[in-house]
Amino acid sequence: IVTVNCARLLKADHHATNGVVHVIDKVISTTTNSIQHIIETEESLETLRAAVAASDLNSLLESEGQYTLLAPTNEAFEKIPRETLNRILGDPEALRDLLNHHILKSAMCAEAIIAGLTMETLEGTTLDVGCSGEELTLNGKPIIANKDILATNGVVHFVNELLIPDSAKTLFELAQESEVSESMNLFRQAGLSSHLT
């Protein structure tokens, strides 16, 4: 599926005597802001703005290139436990992994996303994209709140849930998501819970 500034290409290569015409489904608007500028001016991305500044990703997000930012809203950050958020924000390596997990290596408009597509992030991990009715899904969850915010160096989709990669989780958090509850009980009984957190 081909898009032009997130407008879908409907019919291509209509040849005329003085050129060629491609038919698209939207009016293309002027794009003057970088992804970084969008983060700096959007009220619902205040927490993300602070996180990007703390991890020195500003220069990447205002540089030339073609990226897709899955921008977690303030609401997304508020959904995770305060203790977990403070730990990630206080750990530069975990914070950078978290943010890079929300940046795709290419500009991907919603119209061009095909269900079942696997996309690679800057962190080197992958995200599975699909559909649930009219909504796009990431890793099976319909969490894209606002899509196709165009920037000079890519596109931004707002997401209302944080996508935390394994590299930004503690051993305890990873264990909670897997089938090792009996092992966790043994660690607790041995007084070793603090090592997992």
Automatic annotation (TrEMBL):
GO terms (BP aspect): cell adhesion; extracellular matrix organization
Residues annotated as domain FAS1: 1-28, 32-163
TM region(s), chain numbering: none
Pfam family, one: Fasciclin
Secretion signal, residue range per the UniProt entry: none
GO MF annotations in UniProt: cell adhesion molecule binding
Organism domain of life: Eukaryota
Record InterPro entries: Adhesion/Biosynth-related (IPR050904), FAS1_dom_sf (IPR036378), FAS1_domain (IPR000782)
Coiled-coil ranges from the UniProt annotation: none
Gene Ontology CC annotations of this record: extracellular matrix; extracellular space
Family annotation (PANTHER family): PERIOSTIN-RELATED, TRANSFORMING GROWTH FACTOR-BETA-INDUCED PROTEIN IG-H3
Name by which UniProt lists this protein: BGH3 protein
Species, as recorded: Chauna torquata (Southern screamer)
Encoding gene, per UniProt annotation: Tgfbi
